[in-house]
Design goal:
The chain has 140 residues and is α+β, with helices and mostly antiparallel strands. The chain has a domain at 68-140: Cation efflux protein, cytoplasmic domain (Alpha-Beta Plaits). It is 32% helix and 18% strand. Strands 1-2-3 form a three-stranded mixed β-sheet, with helices on one face. Helix 2 packs across helix 3 (110-127). It is elongated, with a radius of gyration of 23 Å.
C-alpha cells in the first residue's frame, strides 16, 4: 500500500512537469513588441519611448513630453565616454534602476575600484539624475 501511495504521489508530482506547459496563445513579450525584445537586438529598430495616451494632450509643435529611455541611456554613455580609460559595455533599465557595466584597461584594487565607481556614478548622476544607478566596473 505504501508503494502504491508513493507511486501515485510521484505520478501526481510529475504530471505538473509536462513537456508542453506553455499555451501557444499566451502573450509572449519577445514577439509582441514587449520590452523583453530589447535584450535581444537582432538589427531591427525598436521604439523605446512611452507616449501619453490622453488624446486631449496638447501637441507642442512636435516635442512630446515623454520619457525616452534611449536618449537617457545615450546621456549615460556620453558621460562615461568623457571620462578617461572607460568604455561602456551595457546599459539597461528596470523601472527606476539603471544597470551600467563599464570596463577599463587598468588593474584596480578593491578600494580604487570603489572610488572609481563613485566617480562614474557622480558623472552619470550629473548627466541624468532621474534614476538610481547600479554600476559594475570590470577590468579587461
Amino acid at each position: 500500500m505504501k508503494l502504491l501511495n508513493c507511486l501515485l504521489a510521484t505520478l501526481f508530482v510529475l504530471s505538473a512537469c509536462a513537456v508542453n506547459t506553455e499555451d501557444p496563445n499566451m502573450l509572449n513579450g519577445d514577439e509582441n513588441g514587449g520590452l523583453n525584445a530589447l535584450d535581444i537586438n537582432n538589427g531591427q529598430t525598436l521604439d523605446r519611448r512611452t507616449y501619453e495616451e490622453n488624446p486631449n494632450m496638447l501637441d507642442m509643435g512636435g516635442t512630446r513630453n515623454h520619457v525616452n529611455l534611449e536618449s537617457d541611456f545615450d546621456k549615460i554613455r556620453e558621460a562615461v565616454a568623457l571620462m578617461d580609460n572607460y568604455e561602456v559595455n551595457s546599459v539597461f533599465g528596470d523601472g527606476y534602476t539603471v544597470y551600467v557595466t563599464v570596463s577599463t584597461n587598468e588593474k584596480l584594487s578593491k578600494k580604487q575600484k570603489q572610488r572609481e565607481i563613485d566617480n562614474i556614478r557622480e558623472a552619470i548622476i550629473t548627466a541624468n539624475p532621474r534614476y538610481e544607478y547600479k554600476i559594475d566596473l570590470k577590468s579587461k
